[in-house]
Amino acid sequence: xxxxxxxxxxxxxxxxxxxxxxxxxxxxxxxxxxxxxxxxxxxxxxxxxxxxxxxxxxxxxxxxxxxxxxxxxxxxxxxxxxxxxxxxxxxxxxxxxxxxxxxxxxxxxxxxxxxxxxxxxxxxxxxxxxxxxxxxxxxxxxxxxxxxxxxxxxxxxxxxxxxxxxxxxxxxxxxxxxxxxxxxxxxxxxxxxxxxxxxxxxxxxxxxxxxxxxxxxxxxxxxxxxxxxxxxxxxxxxxxxxxxxxxxxxxxxxxxxxxxxxxxxxxxxxxxxxxxxxxxxxxxxxxxxxxxxxxxxxxxxxxxxxxxxxxxxxxxxxxxxxxxxxxxxxxxxxxxxxxxxxxxxxxxxxxxxxxxxxxxxxxxxxxxxxxxxxxxxxxxxxxxx
Length: 385
Fold this sequence. Notes:
- This protein is α+β, with helices and mostly antiparallel strands.
- Helices cover 18% and strands 25% of the residues.
- The longest helix is centred in the first third of the chain and has 27 residues, at 2-28.
């Protein structure tokens, strides 16, 4: 009898100990039903890219039905992933990743360093030059004298014939392109796909010559300085003439401001403001270029192109032309080129600092000393066909 009571006491004691162990496990939150006790973990990593100007934000990473988006620096973290072996996959429309997926085994700890490299298979290298063929033709250059107050020195309107077609860069020269052949970059706002800023007229000519040498073309300019000489038969890169610039910027448009009806010469301030706003889809100008309150140039090609596929002709940066300043006449001209050897050089188009309809006009003219540099001065290049 005593032995039976002793055995029952031992059994009761064992059951109590087991109950206490189960209670302790329950209170600690542990679940012993699986190899990791039911705990979850996080996986993290970074998405990078070698493409200048490419954003690494917004890449979707997915693992075991859980997902997260990368932040502005490409970092990501996915929480509450259970133990096991899974594939983690990145995705973003129009982009490719290396590797395409990664296998990860989660046992009893968080997993870091699951990195990917993103690329754009359709991206044009940052230092390449994309050009479009501009056909030879005849157009009316300048404005009527009635617009002299709005557009000084742009009259009279006169016929211009360009007998040669030419290739023109669809973008303003970028900082990546500049860096390929030149050394100093004085741009206030740095970025490979931003337009080069603060360019002297003579530096633009030197860029054309050096790029011509790199690509095996004959140099156009010699004696670069006040008495610069132009080889009209050379096949190398060059600045457009003022007439070539206006012809290409107009792309067949006969109005004074691209893509919109002209305002009257005595337009009110409100009408002029509405006119400027109508140009925002084609150009980065004073009133639409600010980022966090700071007015600045933007990546080339991020506004709509004109009818001939040229971007930023009336905004972002002012663009050097090769001509010296001259007064228009009403006489028709063929392939005009004004080289007096000294004096101011023409510069065309609007800029992110533009505050007047004069600057974003197709017909508006400006000139500055060739030795003057300013953050709003850029350029684009051409080659004769």
